[in-house]
Amino acid sequence: MDPVGVATAPPEARPGPAWQSKCPWGAPKPTSISCSLADVMSEQLAKELQLEEENAAFPEVVAVAEGPFITGENTDTSSDLMLAQMLQMEFDREYDAQLRREEKKFNGDSKVSISFENYRKVHPFDSDSSEDEVDWQDTRHDPYKADKPTITPKKGFIGKGKDITTKHDEVVCGRKNTARMENFAPEFQVGDGIGMDLKLSNQVFNALKQHAYSEERRSARLHEKKEHSTAEKAVDPKTRLLLYKMVNAGMLETITGCISTGKESVVFHAYGGKYVHYFTNEDDKVIPPECAIKVFKTTLNEFKNRDKYIKDDYRFKDRFSKLNPRKIIRMWAEKEMHNLTRMQNAGIPCPQVVILKKHVLVMSFIGQDQVPAPKLKDVKLSSEDMKKAYYQILNMMQQLYKECNLVHADLSEYNMLWHDGKVVWLIDVSQSVEPTHPHGLEFLFRDCRNVSQFFQKGGVTEALNERELFNAVSDLNIAADNEVDFQAEIEALEKVNEDHVQKHGKKVSAFPSDGDPPIYDE
């Protein structure tokens, strides 16, 4: 045997006793992997060893899909775009960090914090967020929900000795009142003071509670009023039903829209149908091609100061006291229908009555192609046309007083239309009364004043003043040096006529003249 080979043989290769190889307490056989120094210093070998350990510890981990993960090792720095993205990511990280520091400095220890989250720049490959950031949707505690006040036990107090707190404690009651504000109506804005530990005193809470109830009742009244009353350029459901029936019955073809609004009514334009057979028991009659629908408003606000026109009218005096206030409006529409009928029979230019249904009055339309005739105040007339219009109105006032036994009571340039460039038409006669009305002569004198002032300003030299025009219309020939004495004479005549009516129960004129209104019994 070669002595050199024996000396160089490894220890485990040398022969030994059998008991030494079978001893359970023997030292384990050392294992060594022969490798070079270059392999030990290789990073690739280190990564492979680490990967093997991870696979052995977590054998079932799903491999992550490869994506465009940017690192300093696998990045191609030769691309300007990639370098720009990396610089932008670093800048965004620094900006967000500075923003978080500013936010923390700004809020400090305040209970109400201001978030700068909307100003942060979150890169699509960088979703880094602060550790102290809280996602309120993932927490069970809602910061915008009021904390329940401490419940006072049945004995009425908590604590002992000097630390006793009753249910009447100012702080406890204040927090309870703040929590009770959630029970107010949704329309009542209570603000967002939850989380501020607000404490409302009983006096303040009771005032807010009473105001909330008042606002709720007021809104309910406004809603009901809107549903049951006629508003500007609109009608309530009952009025719409009446209009639908007129269209369905063939009396009206279509309703185009609103043409005029006033204090007491709204006027719509409509195209007439063929005949009337649904609303009346009379024979069928021809409907005008164009109609005006006057809808009297069903609210009583505008009629509070106008009841004197109807309650003292002898034609409706007995019916006025027996009806409720809402039916007075229907009587107002009926009154205009009767006045227009009188004027039409006398030949005075005025709208022709088609049908009256409750508070809806259908008349002929003064105009053409949905364009109403202009009012006298809106049209510019020449001196000849102005003079012609003045004499027409003077003649109509005399006819109205003597033949129709009526006083317009609201005659002015607003209620006179200039149609076809040559004729004046009178409208709005719902307030017209008879001359024997307790204020009939006063209304006539007021009409004369309006007409006289308008035409004198228009340059009509032949226009009479109000006193001369009053005598020309009524033929009373009242002589007075000034307007005060003239009005006193008018009031005296009205008083005499009123006393005679109360004694004899009949309407009679107390002033004898050839042009007196006709006398008739009730």
From TrEMBL:
Domain of life: Eukaryota
Enzyme's top EC category: transferase
Assigned GO CC terms: cytoplasm
GO molecular function: ATP binding; metal ion binding; protein serine/threonine kinase activity
Domain RIO kinase: 224-475
Primary site of residence: cytoplasm
Skewed-composition ranges (Basic and acidic residues): 137-148
GO biological process terms held by the UniProt record: defense response to virus; innate immune response; ribosome biogenesis
Enzyme Commission number(s) from the entry: 2.7.11.1
Region (Disordered): 1-25, 125-159, 502-522
Keywords: Antiviral defense, ATP-binding, Cytoplasm, Immunity, Innate immunity, Kinase, Magnesium, Metal-binding, Nucleotide-binding, Phosphoprotein, Ribosome biogenesis, Serine/threonine-protein kinase, Transferase
CDD domains the UniProt entry points to: RIO3_euk (cd05146)
Catalytic activity entry: L-threonyl-[protein] + ATP = O-phospho-L-threonyl-[protein] + ADP + H(+); L-seryl-[protein] + ATP = O-phospho-L-seryl-[protein] + ADP + H(+)
PROSITE patterns listed in its UniProt record: RIO1 (PS01245)
Subcellular location: Cytoplasm
Cofactor: Mg(2+)
Family: Belongs to the protein kinase superfamily. RIO-type Ser/Thr kinase family.
Quaternary structure and partners: Interacts with CASP10. Interacts with IRF3; RIOK3 probably mediates the interaction of TBK1 with IRF3. Associated with 40S pre-ribosomal particles.
Protein name per the record: Serine/threonine-protein kinase RIO3
